[in-house]
Amino acid sequence: MMIMNRNKIHFLNNHILIIAIFILSYSKCTTPNINNDKEDIDNSQDLKTQNEIEVQNTVNNNLQPPSLNKNNKAFVFDFDLTLTMEHTGGYPDDHDLDYIFANENNISKIKTMFKKIKQKGYNIYINSRGVKREIENKLKKAKLLKYISKVYGAREREDVSNPLFLRKVWEGKTQNEKPTEQWALIKTYYLDQIAKQGFNPNNIYFFDDTSKNIEKASYKYPNSYKIDKNHRLNQTISKVNNILIVNEKHLKPFDFKE
Ligand SMILES: [Mg+2]
User: Fold this and answer.
1) Whose CB among 101, 162, 206, 246 lies 3.0–4.6 Å from 106's, allowing a Cys bridge?
2) What Å distances lie between residue 166 and 133, 149, 186, 189, 246, CA to CA?
3) Cα 160 to ligand 1 centre (Å)
4) What are 31-42's pLDDT values in tens digits?
């Protein structure tokens, strides 16, 4: 009897021990780890803050439209003998691309120059005495039009030799001037239209092979460059490259407060 009781007690003790171990193990598994949870909360707060910073940065970046950049530059090209190898007489539709640019290689050179200008975020314009619509046609065929913000030129063929049509839109006085003189003033007027789009006159670079155009333009636009007829496109490219390199050295980061 006594033996049985001892065995019973031993049996019960064993069971109590197993149950105690089980309860302890269970309790350890289910007890929340306060430190780990705190860490998780902290991490989530860090992520939220990081997201907020990123959103704020995006908003700030969007507050800086390119037109407000005081360093923005306009590269303005005459068409005939500044970009082209032959003169179209103001009527590009009368000639094919091979005549105008001499060969495919010259078109590639212009494309490379345009790409360099655009890569810096600057703008390209054409300022020509030739018929605007016809210049656009040829530039489109040469796959160059997409780089250009706007083409300024004669509205109709008769305007090339008699630009008096522009008196209505131009406030200058050109009645007694010869067509070349009138066109020089009109080209400066077109530069004024470009400047109104938000360019500082010092940031407008104008290239033209006609001395009179450069002479008139340079009173208001000091960065007007005469292209020598004998060098044409190569000289235009060389001048643009020099300007881009100099600009790179002197470019300052844009400051909103200024
Ligand atoms: Mg020209």
Assistant:
1) 101
2) 16, 21, 8, 10, 37
3) 12
4) 433 344 343 333
